[in-house]
């Protein structure tokens, strides 16, 4: 589970953490990460989007700070910016897609809180990937739904994440 330390937002923004940490209303929070399947899936997702960035007019970023509210900073596993999105040191406008890769210590409560932060910020496409079960979920106001087609998409764009192709990439390490 994550631990929290209280500090000022200015101190958070002026400090480099390895790995980066989230800042939630004065609490410095560790992220659940660091295991092989999490890292492999995060890398595979980033590579999927990176290979298609010119075609889809996007920029995928790994572990990018996103200011979801005045005193809340999240660090999603993968952030996908649209080509028209301002490039800034900390993302302050809703990205096109935010993707979280579940770690074994993540809870439904923590994912719901994270999803609510993203939704309240205005993110339209929030995807949660589970390397353990090889399943994916779309996060929205009503909860988490699995894509019926096995493909995560951004309607009105060519953007698509084909789950069976993605999960095949991490099979050898399991």
Write structural notes for this entry.
- The chain is an alpha+beta fold.
- The protein has a single domain (34-173), classed as tt1808, chain A, CATH 3.90.1570.10.
- Helices cover 26% and strands 30% of the residues.
- The protein has five helices and 13 strands.
- The protein has helices at 9-14, 36-51, 53-56, 108-121, 163-168, and strands spanning 4-6, 22-24, 27-29, 58-62, 66-69, 72-74, 78-82, 97-101, 125-130, 135-140, 143-145, 151-153, 160-162.
- Strands 4-7-8-9-10-11 form a six-stranded mixed beta sheet, sandwiched between helices. A five-stranded antiparallel beta sheet has the order 1-3-2-6-5, with helices on one face. Strands 12-13 form a two-stranded antiparallel ribbon.
- Strand 12 and strand 13 form a beta hairpin.
- The chain starts with a strand and ends in a 6-residue tail after the last helix.
- The model has no long low-confidence stretch (mean pLDDT 92).
The total of beta strands comes to 13
Low-confidence stretches: none
Query: CATH homologous superfamily - what is it?
Result: tt1808, chain A
Average pLDDT, all residues: 92
* Helix share bin: 25-40%
| Backbone shape | globular
CATH class: Alpha Beta
Structural class determined from secondary elements:
alpha+beta
Biggest sheet character: 6 strands, mixed
* Rg estimate, integer Å: 16 Å
Instruction: Give the domain tally.
Output: 1
């Amino acid at each position: 589970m994550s631990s929290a330390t209280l500090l000022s937002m200015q101190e958070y923004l002026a400090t480099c953490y390895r790995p980066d940490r989230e800042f939630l209303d004065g609490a410095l929070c560790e992220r659940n990460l660091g295991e092989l399947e999490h890292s492999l899936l995060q890398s595979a997702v980033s590579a999927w989007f990176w290979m298609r960035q010119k075609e889809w007019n996007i920029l995928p970023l790994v572990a990018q700070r996103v200011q979801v509210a005045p005193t809340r900073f999240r660090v999603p596993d993968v952030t996908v910016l649209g080509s028209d999105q301002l490039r800034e040191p900390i993302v302050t406008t809703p990205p096109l897609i935010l993707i979280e890769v579940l770690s074994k210590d993540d809870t439904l409560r923590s994912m719901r809180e994270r999803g609510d932060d993203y939704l309240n910020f205005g993110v339209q496409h929030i995807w949660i990937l589970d390397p353990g079960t090889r399943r994916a979920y779309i996060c929205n106001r009503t909860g988490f739904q699995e894509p019926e087609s096995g493909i995560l998409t951004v309607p009105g764009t060519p953007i698509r994440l084909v789950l069976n192709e993605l999960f095949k990439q991490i099979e050898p390490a399991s």
